[in-house]
Amino acid sequence: MTAAKASEVGRRFTHRDKLPPVILVFGPDRGLVTEVSDAILALFADSDDPFAIVKLDAAAVASDPARLIDEAGTISMFGGKRLILVRDAAGRNMSPSVQPLLDHPPTDAVVVVEAGDLKRGTGLRKDVEGHARAVAVYCPADTGRDLDLMIEEEASKFGLTIDADARAVLRERLGADRAASRNEVVKACLHAAGGEAVTIADIDAVVGDVAASEIGEAVDAAFLGNRRALDAVLARVLRQDSAAVQILMMAQRVSHALELASVAVAAGASPTRAVEDVRPPLFGSHRTMAPRALDIWPPGKLRAASEAIAEATFRTRIMPHLAAATTRDVLMRIASQVSRR
């Protein structure tokens, strides 16, 4: 098996003649799955063969396994390799179509199969990861660092900079889909074009809140100790793909801000003033919640909460199939630790 990270695709896949015969692109970030597939498709864009790229729907392939096998065996009329892209394969029985290609890899075609999040050791993922000449490209949900790098990359394309405060505001408004997030960043850059930097004003003008507001509600409920509200909102929001990662990212940022603000409160500042002065700043419901949280959270417990969130974030990366349960557990533990001073 050859495994690849989505971030490595540009370096590893540089020419169509060097591509493996079967590539599975999968993961919870559907937008990133599409970006990776598009990067592979771009390697065939200059082909003289108008049929060099064939796109098939997974439902059609699953109902007629021979169709994919026939397409992969078709020789290009102008020579060179062809690409067959199969979209939306998650939840479908693709083994009858893909396994024959793994047993007898095509020499004149590259088959790319797109899927959502697939459990390790099952179905299509098991088939591809168990084969020496196939490559499985995993597309995880964006972390805070991934989003920061993407924001910086897009800003640099426009000759713009973006400071830490503006980047934090923009990151909080981005959701779990890489393609949708990139579009929002480009909108902010276009609004700032002609200036030197992307500002919070640019972001406020054009960038909507891609992440569900319920994610913010969950974090607020945890730090205010409202377990009933937290349980209700988690029951809804954790049904969404990658919501767990987004919740932990937001919880980490809020926890860090509360820690910093608690230092100012200990030095004599009012909770409201401490929240107003904290950097990166808090916005929206978090800004309203934070002074109340500072009244009920001792500084030492805030540090413990931050450490618990960091540990939960690490666990979701090594055990993504437990992300929802891990996120629920840590937020419920945080809510249970709230005590009035």
CATH class of the largest domain: Alpha Beta
CATH architecture level-2 label of the largest domain: 3-Layer(aba) Sandwich
Described by strand count, sense and barrel closure, the largest sheet is: 6 strands, parallel
- According to CATH, what is the topology of the largest domain? Rossmann fold
Q: Can you walk through the features of this model?
A:
The protein is an alpha/beta fold. The protein starts with a strand and ends with a helix. The chain has 3 domains: 2-138, P-loop containing nucleotide triphosphate hydrolases (Rossmann fold), CATH 3.40.50; 144-206, Helicase, Ruva Protein, domain 3; 213-337, Zinc Finger, Delta Prime, domain 3. It has helices spanning 9-12, 30-41, 58-63, 65-73, 95-103, 123-129, 144-157, 164-172, 178-192, 200-206, 213-223, 227-237, 243-266, 271-277, 284-296, 299-318, 323-337; strands spanning 2-5, 22-26, 53-57, 82-87, 109-114, 134-138, 161-162, 197-198. The protein is 57% helix and 10% strand. The protein is built from 17 helices and 8 strands. Keywords: DNA replication, DNA-directed DNA polymerase, Nucleotidyltransferase, Transferase. InterPro entries: DNA_polIII_delta, P-loop_NTPase.
